Amino acid sequence: MKMRNAIKSVASKDCFDSVLFRGLFRRRNAAHFRRRRVNPDSLLTRFLILLVAAVCIGIGTGLLLPKISTPLAQVTGQYIATGPVAQVLAALPVDDHPSKQGYDRKSFSYNTIDEDGNGCTVRDDILKRDLTEVAYKSPSRCQIKSGMLQDPYTGKTIRFIRGRQTSSAVQIDHVVALENAWQSGAKQWDVQTKQRYGNDTYNLLAVDGPSNQEKGSASAAYWLPPSRQYRCAYVARQVGVKQKYALTVTTTEKQAISTVLRTCPTQQIPDH
């Protein structure tokens, strides 16, 4: 009895009562069962008491873990990263109160201007750069008719075929999304800077369409590529973009990027 009371003080009362007392110390009055007193000092009873207590404590601990995960990560150094990308990340200004008020995607003029003057849209420029086995729709060698993409986000090989029902299989992603850039400082830019950012090939990748849709405007705090092999390169490019345009990061975004960078301390900021 003393052992039962000691364990009961540790385990959850509801869990202990519902599992232990109903399971061990209550017997239904049935015609084919003989009522029998359970000896609380027997080895079997003690074992079952300990087992139930362990289950109850385990469940309670499991419920508490998500609540302590962030402080635990800080204590264990999960957010501490080293290397060239981490150094650039550490220098980025932090803004934990970003606002998307007034956000206007059209102000970035994505795919509506010929930034490099080659006569092609930036979408076609990116497809030409990132696809292999490229076939062109016209002699101007601008519009891509078909090609193969080794998708960085998923690791899959995707066949691109231009058409209303098929073009969306491969989409062009702003690595640092336009809305995220707006919240990180772009809303203060002049028209020319917004247009340059919206069509900067350094911030553009041809990727798997569904993955791009899933990402939306999320920062690294809320979305990372499904392919773990590409995550270091992905966050490195995000840091490079934010450095190039003097954009801010949030604390959670910075922590998420640092967590990735801990796995690849030699990762470099992309040159182009």
From TrEMBL:
InterPro entries: GmrSD_C (IPR011089). The keyword Transmembrane helix applies. Residues 122-258 form the GmrSD restriction endonucleases C-terminal domain. The chain crosses the membrane at residues 43-65. Keywords: Membrane, Transmembrane, Transmembrane helix. It comes from the Bacteria. This is GmrSD restriction endonucleases C-terminal domain-containing protein. It comes from Bifidobacterium commune.
